Structure formats: C-alpha cells, structure tokens
Amino acid sequence: MPKLKTNRGAAKRFKKLARGGYKRAKSHHNHILTKKSSKRKRHLRVMTQVHDADVRAVRRLLPYS
After folding, report:
1. Residue 28: CA count within 13 A, CB half-sphere
2. What's the pLDDT at 52?
3. Would you state the pLDDT for residue 54?
4. Which of 9, 18, 25, 41 stands the most exposed, by the fewest C-beta atoms within 10 Å?
5. Residue 58 pLDDT > 90, yes or no?
6. Across the strands, what pairs with 22?
7. CA-CA-CA-CA torsion sign (53, 65, 6, 47)
C-alpha cells in the first residue's frame, strides 16, 4: 500500500485536537480591516473548532494528523 500525501494547504490551516476534532482560524481578519469594528476584529482573533459536518473532509486531507 503506498503512502498517502498530506494536503499541504490543509496542514497549514488545521491542527488536530486531543478529542479528535480540529481547530482553525476565523476568516476575514487579513485585510480591509479599517471598516471593521474593534469588537468584530477581536472576535476574529480567537481560534474555533471545525464543524462536525466538515471533520470527515479535513481528516481525509490530513491522513497522518
């Protein structure tokens, strides 16, 4: 059986959690920040968990995580 390739884009975006889920950063915190409120930008800083419906897809992209 050949080794599986890890999707390098996904490897940079997702980190495995101890319970089997994945953590990710929130989007829209990269540019055009002047029109966004401080509260909105502050909430975009925190990491969040990948939704249960998407965990299977992320797991396929990261076979050795």
Report:
1. 9
2. 96
3. 97
4. 18
5. yes
6. 16
7. positive
Cα 63 → chain centroid = 15
Q: Hey, what are 18's tokens?
A: 């101890």
pLDDT tens digit string along 19-42?
999 999 999 999 999 999 999 999
- The pair of structure tokens assigned to 63 is 């076979």
Q: What pLDDT, on a 0 to 100 scale, did the predictor assign at position 1?
A: 87
Per-residue b or e along 35-55, where b marks 16 or more CB atoms closer than 10 Å to that residue's CB? eeeeeeeeebeeeeebeeeee
For the chain, what is the radius of gyration of the CA atoms?
Answer: 15
Q: Can you point out the beta strands (E) in 1-65?
A: 15-16, 22-24, 48-49
Mean pLDDT of 60-64: 96
